[in-house]
Automatic annotation (TrEMBL):
Active site: H50
Pfam families the UniProt entry points to: Catalase
Family of this protein: Belongs to the catalase family.
Molecular-function GO terms, alphabetical: catalase activity; heme binding; metal ion binding
Record's keyword annotation contains Glycosyltransferase: no
CC per GO annotation: cytoplasm
E.C. no: 1.11.1.-
Keyword flag Heme: yes
GO BP term (any one): hydrogen peroxide catabolic process
Keyword tags: Heme, Iron, Metal-binding, Oxidoreductase, Peroxidase
Protein name, as recorded: Catalase-related peroxidase
Cross-referenced InterPro entries: Catalase, Catalase_core, Catalase_sf, Catalase_SrpA-type_pred
Required cofactor(s): heme
Length: 338
């Protein structure tokens, strides 16, 4: 049950109808944003999910190997700038850092041809829900109850009985314990996309950011995960290898709860380098919507129903916080390094 509570608000979550695939009287972007506020409270100026975060900047150095399966400029040999954001799942901007809280990494690649590639990854190998409706129901079932601070066991048991795909996904997640910190976390894109190369050949792809450094536990306190990240980046840039996994016929592209076989072909597309982090303020990643459907030529969405839904609710969350007054971020880079 504790594991379920820890994944209640993955940043691939908060879903709604999009493109007309759900009835208007079922789920809408406002209803999903309202559900986050119902569970976590209303915190003006912050994201409805992954509210606690730290902005980052860096670059992506492409090996050129990704061009074999994708014509997007980001995979040509060379380096492009990157804007990123490290975060913790949930709608509480001042929550205490905990090792089992889902960690997120949002990235925006900006290429010289003016196109962008945005992705929102988490440190889980699979997602917990197959459909938007499943996520919506689990979010409420995972709401901590007064007194224990944990979900109601009966409500969660009932939810898992109705959603065996979530129970199976949680077993996979439990087999991958969280790393010490952000720097040594592996981040997964989770959803499948279609990559098309210059010859017009298309293949299904998932991707993973694999850390190239370890973390050393040093800090204690409310913000210890972020404090350690700030100190690590101050010492040297942090790096993650971007690994593309190519699916084969029969591999599910419409179900993020199911992993692909480990035997699938992979391509090391390049290295993500994070050279600086910043307290969230106007002009940095605080105001970036890491909509995973913002894609360059050569990458398109798959038939995964979560993708259109993510886009719809990300937009609703962005609109709400953009119109609200802003409060100082819990994470303060200057204070940690002073």
């Amino acid at each position: 049950m504790g594991a379920v509570a820890g994944v209640a608000a993955v940043d691939v979550g908060g879903f709604a109808y999009a493109g007309g695939w759900l009835r208007p009287d079922d789920l809408t972007p406002p209803r999903f944003a309202d559900r986050f506020e119902q569970v976590f409270g209303r915190h003006e100026g912050f994201r409805r999910n992954h509210a606690k975060g730290l902005s980052a900047t860096g670059s992506f150095a492409s090996t050129g190997a990704g061009a074999a399966i994708c014509r997007a400029a980001v995979f040509r040999p060379g380096t492009v700038p990157v804007v990123g954001r490290f975060s913790l799942g949930g709608g509480l901007p001042n929550q205490a850092d905990k090792p089992d809280t889902v960690r997120g990494l949002g990235l925006m690649f900006q290429t010289s041809d003016g196109q962008q590639w945005r992705t929102a990854m988490v440190n889980f190998p699979v997602f917990t829900d197959r459909t938007p409706q499943g996520f919506y129901e689990r979010l409420l079932a995972s709401k901590p109850v007064a007194g224990t601070g944990k979900p109601d066991p009966q409500k969660m048991a009932a939810f898992l009985q109705q959603h065996p795909e979530t129970a199976a996904a949680l077993k996979i997640i439990k087999q991958t314990p969280p790393s010490i910190g952000f720097a040594d976390s592996t981040f997964h894109g989770l959803n499948a996309f279609h990559f098309t190369n210059s010859a017009g050949e298309t293949v299904p792809v998932r991707w993973t950011a694999v850390p190239q450094q370890t973390s050393q536990p040093a800090s204690k306190g409310n913000d210890y995960l972020f404090d350690d990240l700030i100190r690590a980046v101050a010492q040297r840039p942090l790096a993650w290898k971007l690994v593309l996994t190519i699916g084969e016929p029969g591999d599910p592209t419409n179900d993020a709860t199911k992993p692909w076989p480990q035997s699938r072909r992979t391509i090391e597309a390049g290295t993500i380098n994070i050279s600086a982090v910043q307290t969230e303020a106007a002009g940095n990643a605080r105001d970036v919507n890491f909509d995973p459907t913002v894609l360059p030529d050569g990458i398109t969405v798959s038939d995964d129903p979560l993708l259109a839904a993510r886009s719809a609710v990300y937009a609703r969350s962005y609109t709400r916080r953009a119109e609200e007054s802003k409060s100082p971020s819990e994470v303060n880079v200057g204070q940690v390094l002073s």
